[in-house]
Amino acid sequence: MSRGTLALCAAGLLAAILYPLVVRGLAGAGVGVSANYLINVGMLVFFVAFIGQSWNIAGGFAGQTSFGHVVFFGTGAYCSTILHVTHGWNPWLAWPVATAAGALVGWAIGALAFRAGLKGSYFALITLAFAEVFRILANSVEFTRGGLGMLIKADQRPENFQFRDPMWIYYLALALCVVSLAIAWQLTRGRFGARLVAIRENEDAARALGIDVYTEKVKVLALSGAMCAAGGTFYAQKYLYIDPSIAFGVDKSVEMLLVSMVGGAGTVFGPLVGSLVLTAINEGTRSLASVVPALKNVQPLSLIVYGAMLILIVARLPDGLMGLFGRRKSGKRHDA
Amino acid sequence: MLEVRGLSKAFGGLKAVDDATLDVRQGEIVALIGPNGAGKTTLFAAIAGFHTPDAGRVTLEGHDITGLAPHRICAAGMVRTFQITQPFAKIDVRENVMVGAWLRTGERAEAMRRAEAVARQVGMGDQLDQLGADLTVAGRKRLELARALATGPKLLLLDEVMAGLNPTEIAEIVDVIRAIRDSGVTILLIEHVMQAVTSLAEQVYVLNQGRMISHGTPAEIAADPAVVEAYLGHGAAARLARGAAHA
Amino acid sequence: MPDLPIILAGVINGLLAGGIYVLVAVGLTLIYGVLHIINFAHGSLLMLAMYAVFFLFKPPVGIDPYLALPIVTGGAFIFGYLVYRWLIGRFNHGRDENILLITLGLSIVIDNAALMFFTGDIQTIDVPYAGRMVELGAAFLPVPKIISFFAALLLCGALGLYMARSDTGKAIRALAKERQGARLVGIDVDKLFAVSYGIGIACLGAAACLLMPTFYVSPTSGHAFVLIAFTTVVLGGMGSFAGAAVGGFIIGITESLGGLLLGEQLGQIGISLIFILILLLRPSGLFGGKG
Known about the structure:
heterotrimer
């Protein structure tokens, strides 16, 4: 990483750490903002960036576009919630188990789909179908409480993975996001990541150069599944409720894909940039709706804008918004 | 070093390669030539593990590698390039070559050092930062060579590295290939055009319609009527001989 | 386990639903067969056509859905043609994932625009003949479903005939087989692609008219049909007309029997499972030749 990029990262991280304190300060000084609301918005930015990064690692770096990534998210959410609610586990303890479950599902789907040689659109569609199978199962079986969903009893203690002060869940989301950035950054430097990119760019050439394409693809889907499942547990503990359509619905899959694609698939900061932009558009339409009563139905506008942006990105900016920064201009990135 | 015995591969009813046998000895440059559609690339693909042969045996340094997956064959020390070049378009030359170099090292600094050395060896030292997509035909051919070489092979299978190049570029790449051989890598190469290989190869095999029709030194091959017929059509050898007699 | 007559009734109901699936899937398979693209916006465009039928039926227009068929079908053709001309054909850069993503973007825009302008409420139309039934064994079959079944088959047959006999149809089939060749003999390839896409979407327009008398529409209506349509198409082998027809009936029956034997919730799983199994075990489809 060049010195400039490093400084920028450090400054960004510092700003993110100070953000809750600043908005509280502003609210305390009588500026008309709701500090907790803004902290919550910040939490969402990092959380969506985190699950977006999980998509990006498989879909962006390795080029395995998935339309059903929510299958891992839901696996994580249900796994920890069932352990916690039904079996009385501490949610912190359930978290790594849920993460491992996500890895397992990723490994299994990858093994099946890649063994069958599914690529491109076919891979995307089969992940969608897997998510649908999981959704229907969660809707039908007893131990997930079917369509009623699962409620986590509110008990706001940190040792219970519930926080009275939204600032702490914000910091947890930030930490997850930083970890995911570190993983992605490592992919841009290490052997595993180089192999994923080679597979994305040309499978035959990758194979000829000694890469075990099948194994690497299964590995990356397991990694991605683990991260996404960790996000699922986080979500369940934050909102204390999950049901089949939240945990396995198409919306989350699309959200993960969108933030990565718009921000820049296969780039380290793409999902974070995409998440920032998505949240900004969201909040923009929300406040538009609150200011102009005639536009109370305007909420879907943010997704309309996002869908249009996806088309625009595919058409004109294959590297997403990150492509605007001209990351391929020079060889500066190559200081070992 | 490489022994191919009785290798056959059919697609549907069509025998693309039929009972092909060839030997490559350590330190040699061996050429496989033949007219278009002779089955050269299919034979290559079957040797390198991209197609599973229907019959026959491939051994590398005494080890049976028949039907092994390409990545295993590559790890065993034999690597192929593609006639239709397959650069990783969105990454630069250095990273392209590093993909090969990562086969033998897990260290980034070492992979980079190795990649840069190989890139210089094939004459791409000043193109390290260029994207794969931005290379010229000659650049892509060299990149194929560099990436393969970076995997540290004992035997290099080159599929038409000279096709599409102009005479100057061909002369340059011939020098590069010779230098690679002199550094201790054995080479088996496919070419469509015979002249290109006469100055380079010690042994030449000729494939026509899936069958090995001749093999020997370049001079022997050039004098073989069966080879001339294969390239110029039935009766061509006799016509040529008559033409020479009249002149 | 329910009695045999009930199962038979389930099969018949499934067949009736299958007729519509055939029509939806024929559009999708035509688009795939000719353009080699997977049209992810298929469900959303169907939903849009269903809203068109809904608004045409409501005052002040008040057109019966069956009578609206030529209007909606024609409108859908034009819409599809333009979508291809302006969007898909221009921006795909020749990669199939890009087309998948563009059509995904399109479906996001359409779904949310529908949500914004039509709200999330479920809308139905009240045709006077909605409640009429025909008794067949243990099955009571709603007349509109029978009408839509035969109409769907008739339309598929007509489309098949059109593709086989008309100059445009022949050109499209030539294009599906041999892109370069078609270009060389002077066929306007881009226009024909757009026409093919338009015909595929026109099938949706017709399907919407046949669906609305017995179905409802909401901005998420398309979702239910996306996986059904894709499953039908892969079941029959991507790009195969006859395959899509057989696939449609199999899916209709699977859905109907699944609901009957496994219950309302779990019954839906059959379609997704068929989709996954076909892709994993026989990607060329049950009736497809090569992979």
